[in-house]
Amino acid sequence: MNLIESFRIAIRALLANKVRSLLTMLGVIIGVSAVILLVAIGAGVQGEVTSTIEGLGSNVLFVFPGVMDQGGGGFGGGGISRPFTMEDVQYLQLRLDNVDAVVPMAQSSGTAKFRSASVHPTIMGTTEQGRLVTSATLGGGRFYNRSEADAAARVAIIGYTVKERLFPNVADPIGQVITIDGQRFTVIGWLEKQGGSLSGDQDNQISVPIGALQRLTASDRIAIMLVKVTSINDVDLVRAQIKRVLAPRFGDQITVFSQDQTLGIFNALLGTLTVMLAGIAGISLLVGGIGIMNIMLVSVSERTREIGIRKAVGARTYDILSQFVIEAVMLSVTGGVVGILFGALGATALSSLVPTSITPWAVGIAFFFSAGVGVFFGVYPAWKASQLDPIVALRYE
Amino acid sequence: MTTPEAATQGRSVLQVLDVTKTYVLEGVEVHALCGVSLDVREGEMLSIMGPSGSGKSTLMHIVGLLDRPTSGQVIVEGQDVVGMSPNELAAVRNKQIGFVFQSFNLLARTGAQANVELPLVYSGVSGSERARRAREALDSVELGDRLHHTPSQLSGGQQQRVAVARALVTDPAIVLADEPTGNLDSRSGVEVMDLLQKLNASGITVVVVTHDANVARHGQRIVELRDGRIVRDEAVADRLNARDELVQLGMNTAADAASLGARP
How much is the pTM? Predict the structure, then answer.
């Protein structure tokens, strides 16, 4: 009997037991697709955050008031310190060399309305130099200029989601007047779609001059200053300079992070998330594997009798084994491929909510683990049965 | 129909020489067969009879190469099979022996034709030739119109007829039937015995194992086993003819009449 005949027998046996074949494949499908999906989410979020931070450029320094513990990866630590004000920003800007810009950033949330539509975006406040330290690109209109920033003009650049929600029927939102917490702002620009991230939907944002935000929130606090260094070679120099300049005002209650350090903090955080997701994925894989094992073991008695019948009419050990190996491999590989498809489809479908990125090693591990379990539990009982005398296999209960 | 005398004078297709089989069950030795010798002649229809526990099924399994004897010789078509490897035994079972079991032992969820084709698959017969021979075999057991019915869609009698078709499709030297009527109603049982007698009339050696004296009387010779030994070996004086019995049972339906009338 040749290999083609073995394939025919295996296919015939699989088709004769459709439910069993489907259930076995289901185990592989669930395991493979769950792992692919979960790891894709973990990797996607990490990639998104990384690219956002990297998008700022490696010559940007993040200046926070207070002391942040970088090693622990948390933002909770720190001594007592007052927040920055615009005065601090100007003070620092005047005393730093070798920098392109010192950009203050503050944020709040608010309600933005246009006619009957309303959204609840994050309101970002910055200066005209804010565009130097952001990865977002304008889809239309312009950024606010220096005089608008200085005058705290009521102009707004809206994120993609805000544009879609507030202006579903308006072709060009530029020049339209919206209200933010009751105050009227003129839309002067909108941003291209950026996608979500851990820190929330980056597209659900409105950027206004920082003075306008401070008036909205009736607060002069500034959360962070971003310092863009002219040359990457000067980053360490400027970092020391910032600490020195701010020392008379804040003492040692100042934290300056480079992009690498910020990435390090986020990666530590996201690493935990990825480990958690991988743990869940591992459980899915295990459950899928147990499912496969159960189906295979439950059908041992029927399959042992089948082996007895086949041997009685003249099947050799090789014939039996090749049939069962082919059956198990076909089921596992088909299930694995379907699982990969489902996982990839799911990851694509989810990408509008959460960034996802399909990782080849996760696909590989999930596929080979599930397929391995399928093949082992498909072949091992069959191998044992094929060693029995035909009459013992026939009588097996 | 050949006479018993003629049959016993034929060539030997199967010889069993001083075969013993000892099982160990929970530390106790059970002697299923204690030195059985038997000679099955070509073209003969032999009944092996005995109560349950007499060793008749064990004997059939050894004769059919499904089980190995503890000692003794089994010679099929002149070949001593006791020392053969599992694969050599598989080849002999495939080419020389056809089985009919009490519990049918058909592949579940598999059509009648595919079941009948099974032995041919393992002897390397090509697909189209397999299909042709399987259909022919099913025609000969009056199931030519049930080619793709699965066992669960067939009655017990029909399943046993599929099993008979599977046994004869390889054109074996010998057909072994283990309690072939055991799971059947009396009419289906007689029909199966009729098929076996017809098979025998066409020249195939048939061995029927049964505990039922009436079933045994369909053969030309009865070997009776008791406690693992042969206690009787004699020709049947008043042999039953299954076709006469069917006539006596009455042709209940037009379909029966048609199927009987269609027989050669």
Answer: 0.71
